[in-house]
Write a structure and sequence with these properties.
305 residues, alpha/beta
């Protein structure tokens, strides 16, 4: 395993690792909140048999530096961070991208942007919608005259109660410092039914700093969403028992993703921990399938109409 220290456009340093042969197809894995790159290790170890796997701690997590202020966590800067990682580890090379939770949310900024549109071959997204797409989805539901649609929107707002809590500067960080960080493994075990194979030694710090992701992005994106179209084929892996992201949130995604595939799975939010074999298999199948000129029937059957 190789280790990198990568300088970003605003001067902070990111911690990155790579696994597998550099001659294999490149695959970047991006973690969510309140995790760091360790959450991907069970999946990455399996994928490294076929891919050159790159993992990194996003700013404010793990061994990467923290941003100087809330604005340093805006999605535009996070997209620049991904550019810095791939420009350093696999310069000028095309790559596959897979992400979970906030890693997926921030990766949509790159998948629907222009800076890497000629380098991203495919994107596998797990439990993390584009905030632009989610904003359009919410506006459509809450502005509907159909009770079912309104209920869908209200249900997602209920599932996202913590987002409003995270807008308060002091409360959420204090909760992490006063015990949530120490108790986090017990939460995962009791309520998510998962165990961390590689415990996170910076859990409290990751929880405290990562709150800025929500404060920097949610309100402005959800109230003024952009029209954001994907530059590559996208696979969404949708856990049916996700407590934070309702499955219906992805129902309009075909509008924004011309080539979209969907796999539903009976699992909770941290499916990367609960079913690493299957997640690695699905990411690998999709990445390999998207490099073929004629899409395999097994993947085409997953296309969202």
């Amino acid at each position: 395993m190789n280790t990198y220290r990568i300088r970003t456009t605003d001067g902070i340093t990111l911690h990155a690792k790579s696994m597998g042969s550099p001659d294999a197809p490149a695959l970047v894995l991006v973690h969510g909140y309140p995790d760091n790159h360790r959450v991907w290790l069970p999946v990455a170890e399996r994928l490294a048999e076929q891919f050159h796997v790159i993992l990194y701690d996003v700013r404010g997590a793990g061994e990467s530096d923290s941003g100087n202020n809330v604005a340093a966590y805006r999605l535009t800067q996070l997209a620049h961070d991904l550019e810095a990682v791939v420009d350093t580890v696999i310069p000028a090379q095309r790559f596959h991208l897979a992400a979970h939770d906030w890693g997926s949310i921030q990766s949509w900024e790159s998948v629907t942007g222009q800076a890497l549109d000629d380098r991203i071959i495919s994107f596998s997204s797990i439990s993390g919608p584009s905030l632009d797409h989610a904003g359009h989805w919410m506006r459509k539901r809450l502005g509907s005259s159909e009770p079912k649609a309104i209920i869908e929107g209200l249900r997602q707002l209920t599932s996202s109660w913590y987002i409003m809590l995270f807008q308060v500067p002091v409360v959420a960080p204090s909760m992490w410092k006063l015990g949530v960080g120490r108790l986090w493994p017990k939460y995962l075990s009791r309520f998510e039914r998962v165990q961390e194979q590689h415990p996170n030694p910076s859990q409290t710090a990751d929880g405290v700093e990562g709150v800025k992701l929500y404060r920097a992005n949610f309100l402005n994106k959800l109230t003024g969403p952009a029209e954001a179209f994907a530059c590559c084929p996208v696979q969404i892996i949708v856990p049916a028992r996700d407590k934070f992201v309702n499955v219906s949130l992805f129902n309009d995604l075909k509008t924004w993703v011309p080539e979209l595939y969907r796999r539903d799975i009976d699992a909770g939010h941290w499916v990367v921990l609960s079913q690493p074999d299957l997640i690695a298999q699905w990411i690998a199948e999709f990445a390999i399938g998207m490099t073929q000129e004629i899409r395999p029937t097994t993947l085409k059957s997953l296309a969202v109409a």
